[in-house]
Fold:
Amino acid sequence: MAARPGLSSQRSAKPQVKDIEGYVHEVSELKIPRSGTANRYFDFTIQENEKTRRVCCFSPNQRDDIKEKELNKSPVRLMNVSPQKRKYVPDSTEYRFNNYSKITVVKNLAFPWKDVLKKTSNETSIKDILN
Structure:
């Protein structure tokens, strides 16, 4: 039986990781899924230059450090995060922050900190109206 082309390279490929820079916003409390306490996580928003994206962190011991960077409005670099398609919003991407990921403060960013507010379900934007 012949192997399908490209299948072996898909299995051996490492997950895609990248470094991103921005500002931390909206750090949540620790969440415990119904499956048990072993999978505790929290999430936050990272303000990049052009976009804001959700970051899901599966390293609960990092929460206090990340929360401090949010309160201080520190410019940060998230290292070794993996982009993931959002489960319920397939056209968007979120980042996964795992135990091998790191967060560091950077000196200057090319863009300023700005207030980021979560859009509630009953808010309608101009873009929504035009579409």
Confidence is low (pLDDT under 50) at residues 6-12.
